[in-house]
Structure formats: C-alpha cells, structure tokens
Amino acid sequence: MNTNKKESIISFKADDSLQKALSLVPNRSEFIRTAILSALEHICPLCQGKGILTPSQKSHWNKFELNHKVQQCHECNAPYIICSFNAEHTEAAH
Predict the structure, then answer these.
(1) What is the residue range of 21's domain?
(2) 2 occurs within a structural domain
C-alpha cells in the first residue's frame, strides 16, 4: 500500500474583497479544502452543480416529475421532493 499522498496545487482568481477576507483566516489552505469538500457534498445530483439542466436532463426530469413534486417544508422552508406513490409521507416525516 502506497502511503505517500501526492498533493496538487490548484489556484483560482479572487477579487479584492475575497482576498481580504481569506487573509484573515489562519489556515487558508485547510479552510478552502474544507469549504470545497463541503460544497461538493451538496451538489445537485441532477444538474451536478451547474444550476441548469441540459435538454436530456430536462427530458428525464419531466418523466420523473409525472410521479413526484417539489414541496416546501413548513418548518424550515426548504424545498424537497415527494413521491406521489408514497401515501404515508407527511410533512412531519420530513
């Protein structure tokens, strides 16, 4: 088993306000790594973080949407998907 992890350097452009905010963070590299990993865990499984559906994805969504709908939670106001086949689903189960 190879325990030598090869790390890569990734750079990105930042405007002045972001650069100033990051300069206040004690361990910028760790902060940025953690923020990116957290964001990757919350990517939309359908658009994969792009925010837009391709025509093919939209076609699949249209078929999926026939038996599912997006509702808004009355407690946290977050939208979520509910399956119309799941008659037992209630707002309390969310």
Answers:
(1) 12-42
(2) no
Is residue 16 a part of any domain in this protein? yes
The count of structural domains within the chain is 2
Residue whose C-alpha is closest to residue 66's, from 49, 44, 81, 45: 81
Give CA–CA dist 19/33, Å, rounded.
16
Q: What letter would DSSP give residue 93?
A: G
Global pTM reads 0.53
Residue written as tokens 């325990």? 3
The whole-angstrom separation of Cα 62 and Cα 54 is 12
Render pLDDT for 26-66 as a digit per residue (tens, 0 to 9).
Answer: 999 999 999 999 988 888 888 888 889 999 999 999 999 99
Q: Residue 48: phi, psi to the nearest 5?
A: 60, 40
* CA 30 distance to own-chain centroid: 20
DSSP 8-state secondary structure symbol assigned to residue 66: T
